[in-house]
Design a protein that fits this description.
The chain is of the alpha+beta class and about 725 residues long. Helix content is about 20%, strand content about 30%. The strands form 6 sheets. Strands 1, 7, 8, 9, 10, 12, 13, 15, 16, 20 and 21 form an 11-stranded antiparallel sheet that branches. Strand 29, helix 9 and strand 30 form a beta-alpha-beta unit. Helix 4 runs parallel beside helix 5, helix 9 runs parallel beside helix 10 and helix 10 runs parallel beside helix 11. The protein starts with 10 loop residues before the first strand and ends with a strand.
């Protein structure tokens, strides 16, 4: 049973290393992972960090260091934590594997894969460790294939994707935590003795309360642009577990993989279980250096269509909620077109025949147009979009249904439900989760998308939502003895379905939304073009949430919208200029009813959209340098994007609190060419007169040493003053 066949491109070349090979070098341009693969012995990890000189590799064993099992297995000397724990077909709970072979292969996309084959010394039971590198990236992906050649079923009790020992020291952990409408908060802490665990058990949405990505700063308190840092990102859309065990050895032991709790997997004879990938990276350029590594790798090799610019859009949700009709949709399309937008997305509330979708407690699964709201159907909306020169998108939630729906009435057997229990209901007191382990459900979900795209091929964008967790452990499809497979087989089925969708419809843009930021992970993004960070559009709180999100995910994938004031979540009143300047640091969009805006606010949004289009390639494809963290409580946050050629950059500065007598730090820039001259242009300006440095040129060296003085207020008419201030500067090399 392979979980992620979809992530393994066809192998183009296969070769076997010499039989006496022992030292295995898994290197990228700037990093090295060194393994000792002596045949007949367990695989050992010797080193991970800066790329090693060949002369140092020769004496690495003599330098002292790791020399620890690269994939610890349970059973013999069971006191320590293990990456793999199984019960063999005869009941034996011990495993003892040794290297039998080393293979290399080259994939069609140019990636190199090294496979270290291991077999149990007493059982026909194989554990193959895989390491993938790319010629142009400093990320190493590792995963494990577990094959049962025994006479009966083997039970997998724990099956981590990877393990990495980190030398004990002043090591700090950076990770993300949160909740609905408050996702991706950053926490930084020194690693204590004992176990620090990060895990998810939601079943569907795995990035609300925590994230399956971490950074480890090896030189004390984390710094943004200096210091040695290791990054780890589990590429999985389901339940996960990352934990770091700091014991009485000289190491912090990092394990990451699928959360095995209540998910023991019964591996039949002849079957292979493949774990999701664990992506590892290292940088001596601090936290931002690791982020840049993840962003470059993700855009090129993980994110769907990561090389294509994303459009500026208006989403209807906070503008009208369920109150959809043709006249309102046409007006919103006209308004976003007049402001320079490129795409309109109609959110929830457009469907239902027997049960119209007027509130959140009915109709999911009945994906037919409500002709009372939309008498001319989707075709009528597409014609209106075309007339206004914008593209059209639509909202769906295909993995869900309601008790009040025709789908549930006809097929109650399709939902996740435990036997002999009343069904557990979610949102609206009626929402249910369809069982993606069931092939018939997979067909239904595929058909939802395929029907839309076949009938209406001009649809440009799909917002794919998922507003419920798995609320009870029970599959009406899986056999009684395989109920523990529910969480894993759900995502197996989802991935199979997504593969079918992308094979049939590769060009439609799809957003991963899950009650806001519940599906922000590298395990889902190979089929999605972007994600929704949070249902909270409050610009001040977005500074914090998008800061944390940027640790692992690039701006091109980060949906960031200008919302109404007062905000619909926090009720905070924030001026349009600040809201626009925050949204311009991600994939810019709007989430409001434009007809509720005054002309001045429309003009600000129009200018922001126009300016964003000019800097879009820099923001969406540039290198990120975080400069001043909002979590440092200095009253200001700042970051910038720089093109790889260092010939263009965008600098963002947000004042995040206001007091009389306030003194804010001046922010040095980063990532520029010290010898180039950069001309400064303020974007989205509202001042009555330009800043003193407008149109002036400075060396990159000066800007990186000193920065520019940002005024704390605007020079505007007195009645336009507010307690907010923000600046966006473009720096163009002469």
């Amino acid at each position: 049973m392979k979980i992620q066949d979809c992530l393994l491109p066809a192998l183009a070349l296969l070769a076997t290393l010499p039989m006496n090979a022992e030292l295995v070098d898994i290197s990228t341009a700037k990093t090295s992972l060194i393994l000792d693969a002596e045949k007949g012995s367990p695989l050992k990890v010797l080193y991970y960090g800066d790329r090693l000189d060949a002369r140092d590799k020769d004496v690495l064993r003599d330098a002292g260091g790791m020399n620890l099992n690269a994939y610890p297995v349970y059973g013999l000397y069971p006191q320590a934590e293990a990456a793999l724990s199984v019960t063999h077909a005869d009941g034996n709970r011990t495993t003892d594997v040794a290297v039998t072979d080393i293979k290399t292969s080259t994939e069609n996309n140019g990636a190199s894969v090294t496979t270290v084959c291991m077999t149990d010394k007493a059982y026909p039971f194989d554990v193959n460790l895989n390491y993938r590198t790319y010629p142009d990236q400093d990320v190493i992906e590792t995963w494990v294939e577990i094959k049962n050649r025994e006479k009966g079923t083997v039970t997998l009790n724990r099956f981590m994707s990877g393990y990495l020992p980190v030398r004990y020291g002043d090591v700090w952990l950076s990770s993300l935590y949160g909740t609905w409408a408050d996702e991706a908060n950053l926490t930084e802490e020194p690693l204590p003795h004992g176990v620090r665990m990060i895990k998810n058990k939601d079943g569907l949405r795995n990035s609300h309360t925590s994230h399956g990505e971490i950074m480890l700063s090896l030189d004390g308190k984390p710094r943004e642009n200096s210091g040695r840092v290791i990054g780890a990102a589990l590429c999985y859309p389901g339940n996960y577990k990352l934990f770091i065990d700091t014991d009485d050895t000289n190491f912090h032991h990092l394990f990451a993989g699928i959360n095995e709790e209540n998910s023991e997997y019964h591996l039949k004879k002849g079957e292979t279980f493949t774990t999701p990938e664990l992506a590892l990276t290292y940088s001596d350029e601090g936290l931002s250096g690791v982020s840049r590594n993840f962003h470059k790798w993700g855009r090129k090799y993980r994110l769907h269509a990561g090389d294509k610019e994303r459009k500026v859009l208006l989403n209807s949700w906070e503008g009208v909620y369920f109150n959809i009709n043709e006249e309102v949709m046409a007006g919103m399309m006209e308004d976003i077109a007049s402001m320079g937008g490129e795409l309109f997305v109609m959110d929830d509330g457009w469907f239902g025949d027997k049960y119209p979708r007027d509130v959140d407690n009915s109709t999911l699964g009945d994906w037919v147009v409500d002709t009372n709201k939309l008498p001319n159907g989707i075709n009528g909306l597409l014609e209106t979009a075309k007339k206004n020169g914008v593209k059209f998108g639509i909202w769906i939630e295909p993995e869900m249904t309601n008790t009040v729906s025709e789908l549930y009435e006809n097929h109650p057997e399709y939902i996740i439900k435990a036997p002999n229990r009343e069904v557990v209901k979610g949102r609206g007191g009626t929402q249910l989760v369809l069982d993606m382990a069931n092939p018939k459900v997979q067909d239904i979900v595929f058909t939802v998308v395929d029907t839309l795209m076949t009938k209406y091929p001009e649809i440009d964008y799909i917002k794919w939502d998922a507003n419920a967790p798995i609320m009870e452990h029970g599959s009406q499809y899986l056999t009684a003895d395989n109920q523990s497979h529910l969480y894993i087989d759900y995502h197996n089925g989802l991935i199979k379905t997504l593969n079918r969708i992308r094979e049939a419809h590769p060009d439609v843009t799809i957003q991963a939304c899950a009650s806001g930021g519940g599906r922000v992970n590298w395990g889902i993004l190979p089929w999605f073009d972007e994600f929704w960070c949070s249902d909270n559009n409050d610009a001040l709180q977005r500074v914090y949430m998008q800061w944390g999100t940027s640790y692992f995910f690039p701006a091109i994938a980060m949906g960031s919208h200008i919302s109404a004031s007062p905000n619909h979540q926090t009720f905070r009143r924030i001026p349009t200029k600040f809201r626009a300047d925050v949204a311009m640091s991600g994939r810019l969009g709007l989430e409001m009813q434009p007809r509720d805006m005054n002309d001045e606010d429309k003009d600000i949004c129009r200018q922001a959209i126009n300016d964003y289009k000019a800097i879009r390639p820099i923001v969406q494809f540039g290198d990120l340098y975080r400069l001043q963290s909002p979590y440092d409580k200095k009253g200001v946050a700042s970051l910038m994007y720089v093109t790889p050629e260092k010939d263009d950059a965008v600098f963002y500065w947000w004042k995040i609190e206001t007091f009389m007598g306030q003194q804010l730090p001046r922010i040095p820039m980063a990532g520029l060419d010290p010898d180039k001259m950069y001309t400064v242009t303020e974007l989205n300006r509202i001042d009555n007169e330009p800043l003193p440095f407008e149109g002036k040129s400075f060396t990159g060296r000066y800007l990186m040493s000193n920065g520019l003085e940002m005024p704390l207020t605007y020079k505007v008419d007195y009645h336009k003053n507010t307690d907010y201030s923000s600046r966006v500067l473009r720096l163009t090399a002469k």
